[in-house]
Design brief:
heterodimer; A: alpha/beta; 7-stranded mixed β-sheet; 31 helices; B: alpha/beta; 6-stranded mixed β-sheet; 8 helices; globular; Transmembrane and coiled-coil domain-containing protein 4 (chain A); DUF726 (chain A)
Chain lengths: 638, 205
């Protein structure tokens, strides 16, 4: 359905000059339209945040929205009833009414600008609001790209410096004029809060955005300075708020047992939502840096990578490598056989030869296990203090990085004001408890999705957990059976053949769980590029950055294949592995897996899977939730 | 408190603009009357718990806007309603004449065919009556509806209208018993029997 409706929008994105979507679209609507609009929000609130603990938030949003739309207060009881879960049957009617409105009938995506402006009007962007926004746009059959584009436009018109030189004088004048009006409209909310409070409220990484906005308030003299890093510092000192953001965050002194904790920028851009990626270990060579596994990640234009305890992660990486590289080759295959067949049965007996080398891995693993928990707690404190600004954060991590996230969420859940900060979390191969009870508190913290990517045949995880009989269920090995709309389990068994693949196959994994990568940005890029040249620029820059690095990476890949070849998983015949139990799916998975590996080993072949579509359909077979995982986050489903 | 509530019923109030739908509801829920009540925007919503024959029922009442411009919104409320109150103004014949339209709309959008309907002739306190009580009664009987004349201003018949409606709904088990609260055997022709004999006229005045 989305696909067929996509065309007109694609076409519509090249905005005719005559069109003026600048007034508050929401306020232009006729009363029934406004009513339907507010009702849609109410229904969305009810379906996304139905819990009694969220009722005050629902009321707050509804009240703000009614005010924003200039609707009479008389509608509040009905709206609150909608938000309370009643009247959801009317969704379709409301959508139809709204889309028939003259302001929207030709260009439904106009509403997204209004949605974003509403969400930001108080100078902070709540993660829950962003999830709601996505839901409302989805109800209105507007592609999610439009939402990002709308955010982009807002950011752009706050950053007036970013004018395109390539345009003709007249066009640029017109554009400027349009911008100015749009900006005024968008700044209404910000301005009412007052410059000082704005920076105080948003602080952190949002500083550049607000700085540009505040420039309009405090006069253009300071505008140039405000754009620069120094300017931000000035702003910060002016308004007494930390404006340096995550990259500026340095551990002043050793916090607890943590020795290293730093945010490295992954991408250059600025966006209204950010992504923080957390690496699980470091290995020598190609994956020697924290940023290396995330080279293809492009979930948002502003991304950071958490650098933590490199010393210990490097040790762990070396241990993993030595374990991997032939030392226990035979035994590992033996172990794999057991694990694939029996899952992580507690009675699993590990081959004696493997146990003799256990110390190689056990020590660094234990150290990192402990440290990741500490780092997670520290990360929680940083996010809670809004060093990143008041905007949604998505956390993605694999292996011990996922454990960092786990402890971060656990820590955040203890705090009262933990809501509305985290949008989505993606935990891949997480070495943490997998029982629903310990994941339950996360629903309070996370507004969007909690994605658990697991692999049933991850022998390393089951091996390191062999002694801890308490933790019978490990999240990285099996789905977390938490009954909540947020919880999404993605079976990565067909993509990941062992724990080390979380690093090597990150690109494929990210696609499988529905996180945006550079490639899928390019695919949808047609829309984005036209909408904002800035986007295209930053993408281009990002790609250029990548380009020179690629050849060398490929070389290393070649070397890798040589390394792995003598004992890779491929030789394990799939027939031998599937005697009946959950047989067919597993067999086909393995076969597909080895195919994928073959393809992967071919140098220069970046994409093991031919299409996303086949990928997603496969996952929908293996996991119930896989399809929904792919639906909202990934562009592949459209 | 919630435990002894038998069921929650969705009640809908429809009718032409200005016939006094919101006033009826306001009288029923808050026992007040405002002659200057503003036109409803979209829909209004009120909850009230009432006790009928010892059974407590929570009423979720959706009071729709009568104005033409909000007419597009109305279809969304019909779904899942167990009872509907159709209101006309006894001093305005045109509101009575439009009843047929409302019934058609009800048929079109209502998801259950055994929905209980109640016809209310409002504003009987006024002098300039245009629609006779018998006319209303005849119309109601023709369309198997309950009937009552009422006045939101003087409080006449308002309570009775809602009570009658709820009583009727509760007597029609298939209507309100959801699958989750199935109480024993469901007699399939039970509801059929009730459909025909919709003659529970509430004689006021």
């Amino acid at each position: 359905m989305a696909a067929e409706s996509q065309k007109p929008w694609r076409k519509g994105t090249r905005r005719p000059e005559s069109e003026e979507p600048l007034q508050c679209v929401g306020q232009q609507l006729a009363e029934p339209g406004k009513f339907a609009y507010a009702a849609l929000w109410g229904i969305s609130l009810a379906s996304l945040f139905p819990g009694p603990e969220d009722s005050s938030y629902r009321t707050e949003v509804i009240e703000r929205l009614v005010k924003w739309l200039e609707l009479s207060e008389a509608v509040l009881p009905a709206m609150l009833a909608f938000a309370g879960g009643l009247g959801g049957e009317g969704t379709d009617t409301f959508v139809q009414i709204l889309l028939k409105e003259p302001a929207l009938s030709e260009n439904p995506k106009n509403i997204t600008q209004d949605l974003v402006a509403f969400s930001l009007k108080d100078g902070s962007y709540d993660a829950r609001l962003r999830v709601l926004l996505a839901h409302v746009t989805w109800l209105l059959r507007i592609p999610p790209v439009e939402l990002e584009a709308a955010e982009e436009r807002l950011l752009e018109c706050l950053n007036e410096e970013e004018e395109e030189e390539s345009e003709t004088a007249e066009a640029s004048r017109k554009k400027k004029e349009r911008r100015r009006r749009l900006k005024r409209y968008l700044l209404i909310g910000l301005a009412t809060v007052g410059g000082g409070t704005v920076i105080g409220l948003t602080g952190g990484l949002a500083a550049p955005l607000v700085a540009a906005g505040a420039a309009a308030i405090i006069g253009s003299a300071g505008a140039a300075a405000l754009g620069s890093v120094a300017g931000i510092a000035v702003m910060a000192s002016l308004f007494g708020a930390a404006g340096a953001g995550l990259t500026g965050y340095k551990m002043k002194k050793r916090v607890g047992a943590i020795e290293e904790f730093e945010f490295l920028p992954l991408t250059e851009g600025k966006q209204l939502h950010i992504t923080v990626a957390i690496t699980g270990w470091l290995s020598t060579g190609k994956f020697g840096s924290f940023t290396a596994p995330w080279s293809s990640l492009l979930h948002s234009k502003e991304q950071y990578c958490l650098a933590w305890e490199s010393k210990y992660l490097m040790e762990l990486g070396n241990a993993l490598d030595s374990l991997w590289n032939g030392l226990v080759n035979m035994v590992a295959q033996e172990a794999l056989k057991y694990t694939v067949l029996a899952g992580i049965v507690t009675a699993l007996t590990w081959p004696a030869s493997l146990l003799t080398v256990a110390s190689v891995i056990d020590n660094p693993w234990g150290v990192c296990l402990h440290r990741s928990a500490e780092v997670g707690k520290h990360l929680a404190q940083i996010l809670l203090s809004r060093q990143q600004g008041r905007r949604p954060v998505t956390l993605i991590g694999f292996s011990l990085g996922a454990r960092v996230i786990y402890f971060c969420l656990r820590e955040m859940a203890k705090e009262k004001d933990c809501k509305g900060i985290i949008e989505d979390v993606v935990l891949l191969g997480a070495p943490v408890e997998g029982d629903a009870k310990s994941w339950k508190p996360f629903t309070k913290v996370v507004a969007g999705k909690i994605i658990n990517g697991y692999c049933r045949g991850d022998w390393l995880l089951s091996f390191v957990y062999r002694t801890s009989s308490v933790q019978l269920s490990v999240a990285g090995l099996q789905p977390v059976t938490l009954d909540d709309r947020r919880m999404v389990n993605v079976d990565l068994s067909s993509v990941v053949s062992g724990h080390l693949d979380y690093m090597k196959q990150m690109d494929t994994i990210l696609k499988a769980v529905g996180v945006k990568t550079k490639q899928c940005r390019l695919e949808e890029g047609g829309t984005l590029a036209v909408l904002s040249n800035k986007t295209a620029e930053s993408q281009a820059v990002a790609l250029h950055d990548d380009a020179p690095a690629e050849p060398s990476m490929r070389q290393e890949e070649d070397e890798d294949t040589v390394h792995i070849a003598p004992w890779s998983w491929e030789p394990v015949p799939s027939q031998e592995l599937c005697p009946g139990d959950s047989a067919q799916g597993l067999g086909s998975e393995l076969r597909e897996n080895s195919q994928a590996q073959e393809q992967q080993n071919r140098p220069g072949q970046e994409e093991p899977f031919t299409t996303d579509a086949s990928d997603s359909s496969h996952h929908s077979q293996t996991t119930d939730h896989a399809t929904c995982a792919i639906d909202p986050l990934s562009p592949s489903s459209r | 408190m919630d435990e002894d509530i038998l069921t929650t019923l969705k009640i809908l109030i429809i009718g032409e603009s200005g016939v006094g739908k919101s006033s009826l509801l306001l009288r029923f829920t808050d026992d007040t009357f405002d002659p200057e009540l503003a036109a409803t925007i979209g829909v209004d919503f009120k909850v009230k718990t009432i006790s009928v024959d010892g059974n407590k029922a929570k009423l979720a009442i959706w009071d729709t806007a009568g104005q033409e411009r909000f007419r597009t919104l109305t279809p969304s409320y019909y779904r899942g309603a167990q009872g509907v109150i159709l209101v006309y103004d006894v001093t305005r014949r045109d509101t009575f004449a439009k009843l047929d339209n409302w019934l058609t709309e009800l048929e079109t959008y209502c998801t259950r065919n055994d929905i209980v309907k109640m016809l209310v002739g409002n504003k009987i306190d006024k002098e300039n009556r245009e629609v006779d009580r018998n006319e209303g009664l005849k119309f109601a009987r023709k369309h198997s509806m309950l009937f009552i004349e009422a006045s939101a201003k003087t409080c006449d018949g308002v309570q009775c209208a809602f009570e009658e409606l709820v009583e009727k709904i509760i007597q029609t088990p298939g209507l309100w018993e959801s699958e989750s609260q199935n109480r024993g055997v469901k007699l399939s022709n039970h509801e059929e029997g009730y459909r025909g004999g919709c003659g529970g006229y509430c004689s006021m005045l």
